[in-house]
Amino acid sequence: MALDLISCMRSFVAVVDHGGYANASRHIYVSPPVITKQINLLEHNLKQKLFYRTTRRIQLTEAGQVYLSHVRGVLQHIKEAQESLMHLEAGPQGAIRVGVPTILNSMFFAKNLTDFLEKYPHINCELSTEVSPTAITDDLCDVIITAVDFQDKQLIKQLLLTCSRGVYASPAYIKKHGLPKTIDELKNHNCLNKKCTHGFHLWEFSNNKKVTVSGNFVSDSGIDIYFACLNGLGLMYTTSIVILDEVETGRLVKIDLDEPPTEMDIYIYYRPVMKESIIKLLVDHVINKTKNCRC
Q: What does the buried/exposed string (b/e) look like for 204-237 if buried means 16 or more CB atoms within 10 Å of the residue's CB?
């Protein structure tokens, strides 16, 4: 009965995640009639309807929404329990899905995973740009790393590090255009902007001072901005942690202005997990790698 109930739970989550019985069937390789029986069994045991059903779509009832939040946690714990037994024979193994903003991923996080994956060769790590708390609660990611301060009681939040945001340029740009001395002088320079939903033309400094800047290059990718700056096209406003190596090697120069840069906290989020979980292994690794980071 317990195994049947677990199978029913998995089918229930699959129906929610894939928007219907037919799509769920294709993803978990269980026929639609079997999924129907499993959902009916759940509803019979719970004495609650989990879905509103129409000819075109299904929708969770209030009871279904409450049940879903608990079922995801139950399935996660079952997964971790299975992984903990695998560790006894072959060492830690399994897959971890990590959400990281693109620029932080490429310039900092990915390169710090090398020794983790060398130490645990049977762990697979999949990176994505999903960084909202729902990425974890909807089971799209196991861990997210972001500068956004979420308040979600379902997740554990730990501060990874605090770093500054500042203005950077390549030596080639400085040689050709000179250095701005004040934040007002930024208006006279080619400022490279990362496009977002709002305020991408505003650069913020301490004391809540903002400067409207402009330039001939805008992108929704932080990587594009990074390479444009590295190649001397203009000034870049970014988080110090993503260009530590470039500053140390002299490929980029931090510009000291009359207003200090703002500070930014970066957090790591994950569900409560067992100490033996591969997720906890990764979280502990990232925390240890960043605790002495100079930024």
A: bbeeeeebebebeeebeebebbbebbbebbbbbb
Nearest alpha carbon to residue 100 among 111, 84, 89: 111
Q: Is 131 exposed, middle or buried (0-12, 13-18, 19+ CB in 10 A)?
A: buried
Please give the domain boundaries of the chain with CATH numbers for all domains: 2-83 (1.10.10.10), 92-159+270-290 (3.40.190.10), 162-264 (3.40.190.10)
- Does 1 have pLDDT greater than 60? no
pLDDT digits (tens, 9 = 90+) for 270-286: 988 877 688 999 999 98
User: Would the pTM count as exceeding 0.70?
Assistant: no
HEC string for the chain: CHHHHHHHHHHHHHHHHHCCHHHHHHHHCCCHHHHHHHHHHHHHHHCCCCEEECCCCEEECHHHHHHHHHHHHHHHHHHHHHHHHHHHHHCCCEEEEEECCHHHHHHHHHHHHHHHHHHCCCEEEEEECCCCCHHHHCCCCCEEEECCCCCCCCCEEEEEEEEEEEEEECHHHHHHHCCCCCCHHHHHCCEEEECCCCCCCEEEEHHHEEEECCCCCEECCHHHHHHHHHCCCCEEEEEHHHHHHHHHHCCCEEECCCCCECEEEEEEEECCCCCCCHHHHHHHHHHHHHCCCCC
